[in-house]
Each structure stands twice: as structure tokens, then as C-alpha cells.
Write a structure and sequence with these properties.
heterodimer; A: about 200 residues; mainly alpha; B: about 190 residues; Arp2/3 complex 21 kDa subunit ARPC3; 8 helices; globular
């Protein structure tokens, strides 16, 4: 799995993940309170400048932003039909600004930094006894580790269907996939405990 | 949570991610392709129960937030959380928890097959369709400033597909319960 993070040494790369997260949260609050198209357009333009300062190239930028821009376009069309031009302008500029800043944040923060930050943010929850902060990093590692395995299992089940001349249906595919995968849980859990990874403090 | 619970949730999160990578399945009788990811969310609740299912979906959302393209079509990153349809995405967590909670309430191992399937279907429907779509519609209406009713009309076209997924989730949930029971029992 390839992350959306891009190596680099821009100002945004050097900024701490916490500052970026808090900044993005504050920005989204402000953008939702502002209703002036002029201010929102300036914000969208700023977002564009920040994003282009990452020097991703046109093609890369388009590929990354396409899904969210398409959604915005559909919503804009909807708003135009039901609410008129002014509202559409507000919605489009606001959402585009947010999408650009969020995408810039994603492109400049590595997965490892994010996990460290999330673990730190979960510390208060740990004190409340809700979760163990270190478990979050461990689980994320587990998910990334097992996705390729599940995909190859999916292919094996599909091939088994073909070999028997059966039609591939969601149900006959999902059930064996889930049971086969979850049956591994005991072994994996035993392996984790045997290595003392989740040792009690 | 025991280590086993943690691993089960992580494995299910991996299943949900993998379901986003496989090509959408075409069903004969409706023209829209079925993207399997929201089916995975219902399955997480129905199979693992509220706590572990909720944690599995939480992990998927966390992966999205930290910039891995794990949603169907290679979407990911924080931008998906500020897009107009973010309500549906965040709603996944509540969908899994509600579907899990209801499954624990409605379904018992001693019941007959048809009762179990009905119980699972209602649970998946409540979580995956009612709760998720309600949150999605509310956020969409709020973001765009269109009224709730307009957003609701736009939402309606996605309801039949999700009802169908709830049906598949119910059948799969019962099949997994027979083959490898995991759902915690709640009196």
C-alpha cells in the first residue's frame, strides 16, 4: 500500500504534526462560520498556493484531488439547482479551500509521525482506562500487514470458484474469506502475547 | 480488550480495506455496481459485535485520516473528512456499533436460522442504512445549506443498494455464526 505522503523538506514538512492538525481544525471551524464568498475565495486561493508549494506536478495533484473535487462538483450542481448562485459560490469555495489544506497536510505528514501523534493524543484516554494508547499503533501495524494476505486469499477463493465452474457471488466469497481470516486471530494473539508486546506496565 | 479482541478487530479492518480494493461486483438485477466496503462495515458489527466491530471501523477511519488510500477508488487522506459526504464516512463507525449492539440483542445461538437471519437483517438495516444515512444526510444538508428534504431526496437513490447489502450482511452474518461463532451474547 502506497501512502499519500510525499518526501520533502518544505515549511509544512517541518511543522509539527500537532500544529498542523490543530491548525486544520481551527481553519475548518473558521471557514464554516464565514459566509462571504470573497473571503472564502481568498481562502481557496491560499489553499491552492500552499498546495502548489509542495511541487507535486499537475498530474499528481489532479490524481490526488480528483475524488474530492468530483464530489464537490456534484454537490455544487445540486446546490445550484435548489439554492441559487450565491449559495453555490459559498459552498464551492469553502469546500475547495478545506480540501486543498487537508490534502496538503496529508502530503506532508508521514504515517509514522501521525501514529506517534495519535498515540500521544490517546494518552488522556488511557488514563481514563478506555484504551491503551500503544494498542492503536500496534493495531494499525496489524491492518497494514494483513491486507495483502487477505487479497491473496480473496484471489484463491475466486480461483477455487472458477475451477469448480461456480459463479462468484458476494455471499460465497465473503463467508469463507471472513472465516478463514478470523480463524487466524488466536494464533496471532498468542504470538503477540508470547513476545510480550502488550506487557502489563 | 484482550489481545484476541484487538487482533480480531485489526483483521476485520484489513478485510474492510481489502474489500475496497477488489473490483465492484455487478449483480444481475440492479444496474449499479456494489462496492463492498460499506457491506464490510455492516459485517463488522454483525459478526464481531458492538465493541470489536466499532473498533475495527475506527481503525479503518484512522488509516484514512493518516493518509493511506484505503477507501474504494484509492481515496484517503484528511480531505475525505472535509468532503460534503464525510457524514456517511464518520457514520460508518456508528453503523458498526449500532449493528453490533442490535445483533447482540436480537440474535441468540439457540434460535432457528430464519429468526437469526431476520435479527441480523434488522440490525444491519438499523446501523448501516438508518443511522449511517441519517448522519450522512444531516451533514450534507449542513455543509451545502440545502434543506434536509433536498439532501434526503439525493440520498434516496443509494438506499436500495444499501438495503441489499444489509440482506447480504444478514446471510453472511448467520453463515459465519454457524461456522465460527464470535458474536458476544447479551441477555
Amino acid at each position: 500500500m502506497k501512502t499519500l505522503y510525499v518526501e520533502g523538506d518544505t515549511f509544512l514538512h517541518r511543522l509539527s504534526p500537532r500544529a498542523k492538525l490543530l491548525g486544520l481544525a481551527a481553519l475548518s471551524l473558521v471557514l464554516f462560520l464565514v459566509r462571504s464568498p470573497a473571503v472564502l475565495s481568498v481562502a481557496a486561493l491560499l489553499g491552492g498556493i500552499v498546495y502548489s508549494s509542495l511541487r507535486l506536478g499537475w498530474r499528481q495533484s489532479w490524481l490526488r484531488l480528483r475524488p474530492v473535487l468530483l464530489t464537490i462538483a456534484v454537490v455544487a450542481l445540486f446546490t445550484l439547482v435548489f439554492n441559487g448562485r450565491h449559495d453555490t459560490l459559498v459552498v464551492v469555495t469553502r469546500l475547495t479551500a478545506l480540501a486543498l489544506f487537508a490534502a496538503a497536510m496529508t502530503a506532508t505528514t508521514s504515517t509514522g509521525d501521525f501514529i506517534d501523534e495519535i498515540t500521544r493524543l490517546a494518552m488522556p484516554l488511557e488514563r481514563l482506562g478506555l484504551v491503551r494508547a500503544a494498542d492503536i499503533g500496534l493495531s494499525i501495524g496489524l491492518v497494514i500487514r494483513f491486507v495483502p494476505e487477505i487479497l491473496s486469499r480473496y484471489q484463491a477463493i475466486r480461483d477455487a470458484h472458477r475451477a469448480r465452474g461456480l459463479k462468484v457471488r458476494p455471499l460465497t466469497l465473503a463467508v469463507p474469506l471472513i472465516i478463514l481470516t478470523l480463524k487466524n486471530a488466536d494464533e496471532i494473539a498468542a504470538a503477540i502475547d508470547a513476545r510480550g508486546i502488550r506487557a502489563q506496565k | 480488550m484482550t489481545t484476541r479482541d484487538l487482533v480480531l478487530a485489526a483483521l476485520f479492518a484489513a478485510i474492510i480495506v481489502a474489500l475496497g480494493l477488489v473490483p465492484p461486483i455487478m449483480l444481475g438485477f440492479i444496474p449499479v455496481p456494489i462496492t463492498a466496503q460499506s457491506l464490510g462495515v455492516m459485517l463488522a458489527g454483525v459478526i464481531l459485535g458492538a465493541r470489536r466491530g466499532g473498533f475495527a471501523v475506527f481503525l479503518v477511519l484512522l488509516l484514512v485520516a493518516i493518509g493511506l488510500p484505503v477507501l474504494s477508488g484509492g481515496r484517503g487522506g484528511l480531505a475525505t473528512f472535509v468532503s460534503p459526504t464525510a457524514g456517511y464516512l464518520v457514520g460508518w463507525f456508528f453503523a458498526a456499533v449500532i449493528a453490533g449492539y442490535c445483533s447482540e440483542r436480537f440474535v441468540e445461538r439457540s434460535q432457528s436460522g430464519i429468526v437469526q437471519i431476520t435479527g441480523f437483517f434488522l440490525a444491519a438495516l438499523l446501523g448501516g442504512v438508518v443511522v449511517d444515512h441519517a448522519l450522512g444526510v444531516i451533514y450534507l444538508a449542513y455543509v451545502t445549506g440545502t434543506g434536509l428534504s433536498t439532501a434526503f431526496i439525493g440520498d434516496l437513490s443509494f438506499v436500495p443498494g444499501d438495503v441489499l447489502k444489509a440482506m447480504i450482511a444478514a446471510l453472511a452474518g448467520r453463515a459465519v455464526m454457524v461456522g465460527y461463532p464470535l458474536l458476544p451474547q447479551r441477555a
